[in-house]
Amino acid sequence: MTETPVLAARGLVKRYGRVTAMDGADFELLPGEILAVVGDNGAGKSTLIKALSGAVIPDGGQILVDGEPVRFHGPLDARRHGIETVYQTLALADAQDIAANLFLGRERRRGGLLGRVFRLLDSRGMRAEAERVLDELGIGIRSMQQPVETLSGGQRQAVAVARAAAFGTRVVIMDEPTAALGVAESAKVLDLIRRIRDRGLPVVLISHNMPQVFDIADRIHVHRLGRRVAVASPRTHTMNEVVGLLTGALRMAEDGTVEEARPTVPAGTPE
Amino acid sequence: MTTAAERKPSVGEFILRTRAVGPALALVVAVALFSLTTRTFLNADNLSLVVQQSLVVGTLALGQTLVILTNGIDLANASIAVLATLIMAKMALGGGSAPVALVFGIVVAVAIGAISGGVVTGLRLPPFIVTLGMFTIVTAAARIYASGQSYPVSDPLLGWLGNRQYLFGRIEVTYGMGLALAMFLVAWYALTKTAWGRHVYAVGNDPEAARLSGIHVRRTVLSVYVVAGLVYGVAAWQALGRVPNADPNAYQLGNLDSITAVVLGGTSLFGGRGSVLGTLVGALIVAVLRSGLTQAGIDSLYQDVATGILVIVAVAVDRFARGRQA
């Protein structure tokens, strides 16, 4: 491989008491790609993602940003490295408007005395910027002063994604962004993800929805029992193969071919 | 259509968002009603008195609003203010300098607010329980400190807020009214025009979302209790301006009255929604109701019944509005 991964992890370990959530997990996100992370419930996907976004501090292993080892002590550290996360809960303040949510926790102040002494916010500037960002991503919401709670599920998701896209300079991580959405709204969010990728920002997408993963991902990271067991491609592998990999029925050989993991039936028995 | 025109919210949106509109309408209706039904309500003297009567509870309610916006509640606010009045009065009576007495009383109020906030955020205990305990402690402390007596205040500085002037030669305006108005405006500015204010709302709305958005949740909540303590300290000064006598048994229901004003002003007890301007209106509604019902010759116990019904209606309206929006 010639490209340096934007975000990588080597041998991550995380234990909760006697439960091992990550057991030497590796991870690699390449520039400009959409990487899907798939795995069964309890495979340790979300622990991996939380470690990458700074929400969980691993017990062992290494995280690398652009090839440089880093240590995240909280979500803010990851953000400072340009890594933005769209949480499954969206982390939006429902009663506040779209512009306020987009800039929540990093509000901009007016210049000069008004900003420095009177801490006056640049509300108009933030509204204009919010409008620009949403417009650029093709999100058709007109009023930036609409409270988030008045939006539909898909629009709320779009606001959260726009926030990540607006501030993420290296990576956008999305945890199940379409889980709560209907078909039409899911399609819009997937479009949005593609547009972010096309702007050059790599995306990590955690998803349960296999057809969706095959529709949008450039590569597929398969997680099982706390570690990466395979990296598949939607172009060279089938959906059944990926499902087989994540349940453990199949395994991936060194050369990338997929084979039966442990033949449970005696050899020679017809299928 | 210009984009500026598109950004303008509709009238309906505006009313929904500006939670003070409903309470303001209620205030206007109440004033109109009492003006029509009684001969004595609508005159400059009575209206001025109504405002003066709402100053102490209104100021307590300002601090209460900040705490309630973070999804907390402060049952200790009036007892903190009462303790502060006693400190101010006793220190000044003992020959101390009045400015020092005033500042020290306010500092104690800030310190107690900081302790409440510190316990709420540090030990992650429910604000209701923490401030209930604080209410009991501070009330007892005030009585011990006062040794069962009340203390008259003759110092001009401590009673300064009671000074009055006449606008247009007939409308009586006290300095306390000016200070209260200024404090409400400053609080409104801080809540709506600064990042701190947005964080206060966000923390009350959804603390986990606020945390994930990079807001220092505990620091924000702690700062609110400290600022509230400062406001209660000023409420003590307002109290001495109204009645130049520090009494350990005064404002026993001040905590509940302040909550009433906050709720009538349209601020949600569930946190994250509301405004201090609403609280200003809420405090005036209570005072108008009391005054008007008195002029109408209705017994004060029935006035309590009326206020109680209003509170329940206000919370029900909030609940209904929330349910529809969620």
From TrEMBL, chain A:
Q: According to its UniProt record, what is one Pfam family this protein matches?
A: ABC_tran
Which positions, given as ranges, span the membrane?
A: none
Q: Name one GO molecular function term.
A: ATP hydrolysis activity
Keywords in alphabetical order: ATP-binding, Nucleotide-binding
Which InterPro entries does this entry report, sorted A to Z? AAA+_ATPase, ABC_carbohydrate_import_ATPase, ABC_transporter-like_ATP-bd, ABC_transporter-like_CS, P-loop_NTPase
Q: Which PROSITE patterns match?
A: ABC_TRANSPORTER_1, ABC_TRANSPORTER_2
ABC transporter domain location is 7-250
Q: What is this protein called?
A: Sugar ABC transporter ATP-binding protein
Which organism was this protein described from? Answer: Gandjariella thermophila
Its gene name is frcA_2
TrEMBL record, chain B:
Membrane topology of the entry: Multi-pass membrane protein
User: What keywords appear on the UniProt entry?
Assistant: Cell membrane, Membrane, Transmembrane, Transmembrane helix
Q: Which GO terms describe its molecular function?
A: transmembrane transporter activity
Q: Is Cell membrane one of the keywords UniProt gives this record?
A: yes
Which positions carry the signal peptide feature in this UniProt record?
Answer: none
- Major localization listed first in the record, in broad terms: membrane
Q: Where in the cell is it found?
A: Cell membrane
Where, by residue number, does the polypeptide cross the bilayer? 20-37, 75-93, 100-119, 125-146, 167-191, 222-240, 261-289
Translocase as UniProt keyword: no
> Which GO CC terms are listed, alphabetically?
plasma membrane
State what protein this is by name: Sugar ABC transporter permease
